[in-house]
Amino acid sequence: MQGGHPAAAGFTQEADLRWQDHAACTRHGPDTWYPEHGEVQTTTQKAKRICKYECPVRLACLAYALRTREGHGIWGGMTEKERRNAFRGSVDVSVLAGVS
């Protein structure tokens, strides 16, 4: 796979995925974005820090995950649970994404 978040490899709309070429996740292994049980809290915090402080395309990544209803991994600084809550409208996405 060339660039981008590991789980986005199968998405077919290439033009919509150009942001992946600039994503910070390409410099870190998939275990960072898909934590195993027992490592979830530590790994999730690490991934969120990378998204917030290193990734210039964090909002595009989050928008992709929300638009495609990505059910696994950390995308744009949000966990699966946080995105599910956003889908339900019970959470202000801008707050979770660190925008506001």
Structure description:
With 100 residues, the protein is mainly alpha-helical. The protein has one domain. The chain is built from 5 helices and no strands. It is globular and about 35 Å long. The mean pLDDT is 79.
Name its key features.
100 residues; mainly alpha; 5 helices; single chain
Give the total of beta strands. 0
Total number of helical segments? 5
**How many whole angstroms does the radius of gyration measure?**
13 Å
Distance between the termini: 33 Å
Assembly state here? single chain
Helix coverage percent: 40-55%
Q: Give the overall form.
A: globular
Q: How would you sum up the major sheet?
A: none
The arrangement of helices and strands along the chain is HHHHH
Q: SS-based structural class?
A: mainly alpha
Low-pLDDT stretches are none
Mean pLDDT: 79
Number of domains: 1
Strand content: under 5%
Can you summarize this structure?
The protein has one domain. The protein contains 5 helices and no strands.
Please specify the SSE layout and strand pairing.
Elements: H1 30-33, H2 40-54, H3 58-67, H4 80-87, H5 93-96
